[in-house]
Design goal:
The structure holds 2 protein chains of 2 kinds. By secondary structure, chain A is mainly β. In chain A, about 15% of the residues lie in helices and about 40% in strands. Chain A has one domain: SoxY domain (Immunoglobulin-like, Sandwich). The radius of gyration of chain A is 19 Å and the shape is globular. In chain B, strand 1 and strand 2 form a beta hairpin. By secondary structure, chain B is of the alpha/beta class. In chain B, the strands form 2 sheets. Chain B has a 7-stranded mixed beta sheet with strand order 1-2-3-4-5-6-7, with no helix packed on it. The chains are: A mainly beta, B alpha/beta. At the A-B interface, strand 3, strand 9 and strand 10 of A face helix 4, helix 7 and helix 8 of B. The structure holds zinc ion.
Chain lengths: ~280, ~300
């Protein structure tokens, strides 16, 4: 298929979305030529995806920096033991690797709301699909105008990201009766589509592909993903309560490096990094 | 018939406008500035948004920045030739952003030194073809990437005969490879995008580095500044406003990070009251918050 045809199709799907969005306030099902393929790879044909209000995805309409597009996922239900969001798929249809990542959550989170930052390489629907504990799938999607996020040259601070690679930060703050945690890991997160400034060759892909955080050996959140997270991956998420003990973060990247960091949690929930 | 004549008139005007050299103003004796339009380069057909300076000495001419296209480069040369026939010996690029460099090609035939910061080639390699892809309007047809021939590692003086220019490579400010030029004779600083006047500043390097640099400039004797965008200004006027913006940006973003205000919220809510101070605020301010946030959160 020629690029023209592809653009044409993308444009058509976009027109459809705009018309649909103007016609009724309900979130329209955003189409793209890639979506049916992605869907078939991730889910079985029997699984229906509901467009309900279980989650709300917030994205900018136009990304001011396609390499760092802030994404907010708002859960409109609490995480209860009987019914909760257990998986969140974040997808950018028209990215070279459309699945940004999959997050695993549990009732321990209290609320499954998250924020992170992603690269968007072309005008594309961005979608969040959540799987609830009853096995049902729910979707929220937006169209984002952005281009060049995966191939955009690394930022000026990129050399610091290289130097600090593997350095982590974790902070917490009481919010909405819960605790909001902010986890960060410094990593250049090379997409494989950027050009080395000195050699003018492609920089090989080198990105964080696994993150797991535990508190006293109980999993708080887990992420596994591809090239589309921005440089220096960042994740805000919730915990129902902070318990005294130790938080352990385990991270690995696509080059097989492993990173670990521990934090002591005080009785009041204060975090203090522990030396390795 | 009337309509037809109007059509011809408009077409004729169009041609003469295209053929006319750019309007340069002689700011001080022998130092000429073309003031770019305050607009986003992608919103302008001809992308002539950045300032261009040329300086005439007793034996040669230096140009600082060359606009965004081969054709703009030709227009700059025409304007210079109205003033002098001295050889164009130096083309200095303040940094690699596309609105400042793509007229270089028009001067290759003059065999000047193409001078830039020592980190410029790396950035040109990383961004050059990406920029050319984006400059796809007919006006840019034929525009090519020209590699620098002389790299500046430390403070360096070049001579135009009776006139010395000091080249000042910087560490990390607007970008990580800014090069400023100081004309000793008139104490004029040609600052490139280190200074924005009226045009919202654009951060693509280090906020902390940029603020430090502006504090240093406040201590140096400078009689006037040619900014990268906006009118030539006195030192005090030029530095005060941009410093205020950058310092309040640093304070607001630092507080947001401390309070775990996430990037999405921060980029939509911080310092909106500064909108009245700058043109193109909507185009660049959010981007600045994102760049500042991702720098400061690792400090
Ligand atoms: Zn610039």
């Amino acid at each position: 298929m020629g690029m023209k045809r592809l653009h044409c199709l993308l444009f058509l799907s976009y027109v459809y979305v705009v018309i649909a969005a103007n016609a009724k306030p309900v979130v329209p099902l955003l189409q793209s030529i890639n979506w049916p393929i992605i869907k078939a790879q991730l889910f079985s044909p029997e699984q229906k995806i509901k467009n309900d209000n279980l989650i709300t995805l917030i994205t900018p309409v136009r990304a001011v920096n396609a390499a760092i597009v802030p994404i907010e996922i708002i859960a409109n239900i609490a995480q209860s033991k009987s019914f909760y969001i257990e998986k969140i798929y974040l997808i950018v249809d028209n990215n070279p690797a459309p699945v940004v990542g999959v997050l695993t959550l549990s009732p321990i989170n209290g609320l499954a709301s998250l924020t992170t930052r992603i690269r968007i390489n072309a005008y594309s629907p961005v979608r969040v699909i959540t799987q609830t504990s009853d096995g049902q799938l729910h979707m929220s999607a937006n169209f984002v105008k952005a281009s060049g996020g995966c191939s955009a040259p690394a930022s000026a601070s990129n050399k610091h990201a290289l130097k600090r690679r593997g350095k982590m930060k974790l902070r917490q703050q009481p919010k909405q009766g819960l605790f909001q945690l902010h986890f960060m890991i410094s990593h250049p997160n090379y997409s494989g589509l950027q050009i080395n400034q000195l050699t003018r060759h492609w920089i090989p892909a080198d990105y964080v592909n696994q993150v797991k955080l535990t508190l006293n050996n109980k999993q708080l959140i887990a992420f596994s993903g591809g090239i589309s997270l921005s440089e220096n991956p960042s994740l805000h998420f919730y915990l129902e309560k902070m318990v005294a003990g130790k938080v352990l973060a385990q991270v690995s990247d696509s080059q097989g490096r492993n990173y670990q960091q521990q934090w002591q949690v005080s009785a009041k929930g204060q975090l203090k990094p522990l030396r390795q | 018939m009337k309509k037809f004549l109007w059509g011809v008139m408009i077409y004729w005007c169009h041609i003469t406008i295209q053929a006319q050299p750019l309007l340069f103003t002689e700011v001080v004796d022998g130092l000429f500035v073309f003031e770019g339009k305050i607009a986003d380069v992608f919103d302008e057909k001809k992308g002539m948004v950045a300032n261009v300076t040329f300086i005439i000495g007793s034996t040669s001419v230096a140009i600082i920045d060359t606009g965004s296209s081969y054709r703009q480069g030709l227009l700059i040369k025409q304007a210079i030739r109205q003033q002098t026939n001295l050889p164009i010996k130096y083309i200095i690029n303040s940094h690699v952003h596309l609105d400042h460099i793509f007229g270089n090609q028009a001067f290759v035939i003059d065999k000047p030194q193409f001078i830039s910061h020592h980190k410029y080639p790396a950035q040109l390699n990383a961004k050059g073809s990406y920029y050319l892809n984006r400059l796809n309007a007919p006006w840019y047809a034929g525009t090519q990437i020209i590699q620098p021939t002389r790299l500046i590692h430390q403070k360096t003086i070049i001579n135009l005969g009776n006139r010395e220019l000091v080249l000042m490579p910087l560490i990390n400010a607007h970008t990580d490879h800014d090069l400023m030029v100081f004309d000793q004779k008139s104490a004029t600083l040609i600052a490139g995008d280190i200074i924005f006047v009226n045009h919202c500043p654009v951060l693509d390097g280090s906020l902390i580095g940029w603020i430090n640099l502006i504090s240093q400039l406040q201590k140096i004797h400078i009689s006037q500044i040619v900014p990268g965008h906006g009118p030539v200004s006195t030192k005090k006027m030029a530095l005060m406003k941009i410093k205020h913006y950058l310092i309040t940006l640093r304070a607001a973003v630092t507080t947001a990070i401390k309070n775990q205000i996430n990037l999405a919220t921060a980029s939509k809510t911080l310092l909106l009251d500064h909108a009245q101070d700058w043109q193109l605020f909507d185009e660049f301010h959010q981007r600045n918050i994102i760049t500042a946030y991702t720098e400061l959160e690792w400090e």
